[in-house]
Design goal:
Elements lengths: L2 H18 L7 E7 L5 E7 L2 E3 L4 E7 L3 H7 L6 E8 L4 E12 L3 H10 L31 E15 L6 E6 L5 E3 L2
Antiparallel strand pairs: 1-2, 1-5, 3-4, 4-7, 5-6, 6-7, 7-8, 8-9
This protein binds flavin mononucleotide.
Length: 183
């Protein structure tokens, strides 16, 4: 195995750790999107699953949230960027991903069945959509779940390592274009 493939394997291993370890710095990622009006936006999401074979991450969201509209805008081809920073390793990952938002079916019901037992279920039960004004509204009870599952397949991955002895940077994905880069 060459050095770049070995590094990629370490990154995939760290992602697998991240999604199953509370407090792991890569469990939360910054997701950057472009709105239908062409404006940039970014927010934090929790990475829930990593499938190495499919090179796919999974996060959950409110089906009514603006980010879902950003991801479903045809012109953007469902693409987004996930940025992760690990202070311990000194590693940044910048991943261009192609997303697929799923609102129903087994992929959603199986995950909701697990999540609904946890306090996080409240995040998906508000009668108001994320970002809606609370002004003038009386508190309402829980509504039906507005739960969506987002699969994010890694199309490109840029790895940056900050080190006092010298920074290093590599393109690890797509594998056929793997290369060391000037940081
Ligand atoms: C630590 C942390 C974790 C979060 N995790 C999620 C998440 O997994 N999914 C999600 O939709 N929003 C999550 N949020 C909230 C989003 O960052 C964002 O505020 C909200 O989803 C509305 O985003 P939007 O208006 O861009 O759609 C999280 C926020 C924080 C601070």
């Amino acid at each position: 195995m060459d050095e770049l493939s070995a590094l990629a394997a370490r990154v995939w291993g760290e992602l697998a750790q991240a999604v199953s370890t509370r407090g792991h710095p890569w469990r939360t990622a910054t997701l950057a999107t472009v709105s239908p009006e062409g404006l940039p936006d970014a927010r934090t999401v929790v990475l829930r699953e990593w499938d190495e074979r499919e090179q796919t991450l999974v996060f959950f969201t409110d089906a009514r949230s603006p980010k879902v509209q950003h991801l479903q805008h045809l012109q953007h081809q469902a693409q987004a960027v996930l940025v992760l920073w690990h202070p311990g390793l000194g590693w940044q990952l910048r991943m261009t991903v192609r997303t697929e938002v799923t609102f129903e079916g087994l992929a959603v019901t199986s995950r909701w069945a697990r999540l609904k037992m946890s306090p996080a279920a409240q995040d998906y039960l508000s009668p108001l959509a994320p970002g809606e004004s609370l002004q003038g509204l009386s508190p309402a009870g829980a509504s039906r779940p507005h739960f969506a599952v987002v699969h994010a397949r890694v199309l490109a991955l840029d790895w940056l390592s900050l080190n006092p002895e010298g920074h290093r940077r590599a393109r690890l994905c797509p594998p056929e274009r793997a290369a060391w880069l000037q940081p």
